[in-house]
């Protein structure tokens, strides 16, 4: 086995990936809280519309090819450099399109600020071209310690700039400054910390080979982003920017937590699973561990956050954000399913079956759009509930191919996640009762957090949940590894 993908290397990479996610997302969380207190809901709605077009453009710049670089068994400088220059050309073309169509988009949404905001924020497409290749290089070589430095450093810089701009009364432009400076800072820091530089080489042959795998992922990512962002487009046009602001703030907290935990695990799992793509038994073991561990961490957080939503929003965001509470509760349930989604999809990618991945995306998006069409006239809350039902159906669709690819059936997956779900549900019921106590929101929330944590860990110990012992042992191994390194 390649030492790069040994258990010790994977655990060390996972530690740094979790630290990178936790550090950057934690700081980002604080920055977003401060900005939410300083800015109005409709201003967050406007930036959400802008980000739809940026995110769609980023798919063409970043998706597909970076994953192909990770998945390919043997890559060299020619591969990385060719993809970098191709991404840069694509970024230039897309920026030109956005620049000239921005006024029309602004008129369509009846938001005069959209045009200049789009033209300025689209500049991140150029840093995205560089950053996507840098991230692929880091992921392929499990160099997540370097990613930690760049992500945390960039979010600190952008957070300071964004909050300062908000205090100075710059309104929605504070959000533009925060987003733009974050992406620029990441690329600059990684340029000095990651030992990769583009060479003056370009190979159509290399691009064509990577494209044969990457185009399916690119198409899948485009479908996925368009499908997710289409709700933002409709809410912003049919309803109001303030309604969109509440919708997005309700999604922010669960999305932040799940992307932190599950995203860290999956970022390490893709290159690790790819290394075992010829050993299906070992690949299945890694995938099962990914699902079980992610679910054990995510379920209690999502269920817990759903039951403490109201005091949490009042304390953290203030009462002006109370309409976001129902959205927060709905999205907590929706994002609880993410570990199952991503583990199944990463396994399919690691096996080199991007064709299956694309077919799944087309099926899921067709189902989701039908549900969206039904829920759209019923209001913004109905749209969020429809997204939850789409997520439940998608869970079964994503899991289907791995019954054949890795002999990992629905029954096996449900059996693996049920213990964590069961004890998280018990914890949630007990914690919810605390909402009826005649105490202030701060005391209730503190009591709920402490009690929920104790109940969940206690039940995990009583019922001998495998993931609990696994995580404890993993932390001990990491601590010992760091201690041994310090001694040497």
TrEMBL record:
Keywords: Cell membrane, Membrane, Transmembrane, Transmembrane helix. Signal peptide: none annotated. GO terms for cellular component: plasma membrane. Its main location: membrane. It holds the Pfam family Polysacc_synt_3. It is found in: Cell membrane. The chain crosses the membrane at residues 46-70, 82-105, 117-139, 151-170, 217-236, 296-318, 324-345, 366-397, 417-437, 444-463. It is a multi-pass membrane protein. It comes from the Bacteria. Belongs to the polysaccharide synthase family. This is Polysaccharide biosynthesis protein. It comes from Enterococcus aquimarinus.
């Amino acid at each position: 086995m390649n030492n790069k993908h040994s258990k010790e290397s994977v655990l060390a990479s996972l530690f740094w990936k979790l630290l990178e996610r936790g550090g950057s997302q934690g700081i980002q969380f604080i920055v977003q809280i401060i900005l939410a207190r300083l800015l109005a809901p409709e201003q967050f709605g406007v930036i959400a519309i802008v980000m739809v077009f940026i995110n769609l453009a980023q798919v063409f710049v970043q998706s597909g090819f970076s994953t192909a670089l990770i998945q390919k068994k043997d890559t060299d400088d020619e591969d990385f450099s060719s993809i970098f220059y191709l991404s840069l050309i694509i970024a230039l073309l897309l920026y030109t399109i956005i620049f000239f169509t921005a006024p029309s988009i602004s008129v369509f949404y009846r938001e005069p600020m959209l045009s200049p905001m789009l033209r300025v924020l689209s500049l991140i497409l150029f840093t995205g071209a560089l950053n996507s290749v840098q991230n692929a290089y880091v992921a392929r070589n499990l160099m997540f310690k370097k990613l930690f430095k760049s992500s945390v450093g960039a979010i600190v810089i952008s957070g300071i700039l964004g909050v300062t701009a908000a205090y100075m009364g710059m309104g929605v432009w504070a959000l533009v400054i925060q987003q733009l400076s974050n992406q620029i800072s990441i690329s600059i820091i990684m340029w000095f910390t990651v030992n990769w530089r583009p060479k003056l080489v370009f190979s159509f042959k290399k691009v064509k080979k990577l494209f044969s795998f990457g185009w399916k992922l690119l198409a899948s990512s485009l479908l996925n982003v368009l499908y997710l962002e289409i709700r933002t487009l409709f809410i912003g046009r049919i309803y109001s920017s303030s309604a969109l602001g509440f919708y997005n703030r309700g999604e922010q907290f669960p999305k932040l937590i799940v992307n932190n935990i599950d995203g860290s695990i999956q970022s390490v799992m893709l290159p690790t699973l790819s290394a075992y793509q010829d050993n299906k038994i070992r690949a299945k073991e890694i995938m099962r561990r990914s699902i079980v561990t992610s679910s054990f961490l995510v379920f209690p957080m999502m269920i817990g956050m759903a039951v403490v939503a109201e005091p949490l929003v009042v304390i953290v965001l203030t009462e002006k954000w109370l309409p976001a509470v129902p959205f927060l509760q709905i999205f907590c349930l929706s994002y609880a399913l993410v570990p199952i989604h991503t583990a199944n999809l990463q396994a399919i990618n690691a096996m080199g079956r991007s064709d299956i991945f694309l077919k799944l995306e087309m099926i899921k998006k067709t189902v989701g759009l039908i549900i969206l069409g039904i829920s759209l006239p019923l209001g913004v809350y109905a749209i969020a509930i429809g997204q939850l039902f789409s997520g439940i159906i998608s869970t079964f669709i994503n899991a289907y191919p791995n019954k054949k690819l890795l002999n990992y059936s629905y029954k096996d997956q449900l059996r693996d996640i049920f213990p964590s779900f069961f004890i998280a549900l018990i914890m949630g019921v007990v914690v919810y009762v605390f909402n009826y106590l005649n105490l202030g929101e701060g005391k209730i929330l503190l009591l709920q957090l402490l009690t929920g944590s104790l109940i969940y860990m206690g039940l995990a110990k009583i019922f001998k949940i495998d993931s609990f012992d696994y995580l404890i042992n993993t932390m001990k191994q990491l601590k010992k590894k760091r201690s041994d390194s310090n001694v040497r």
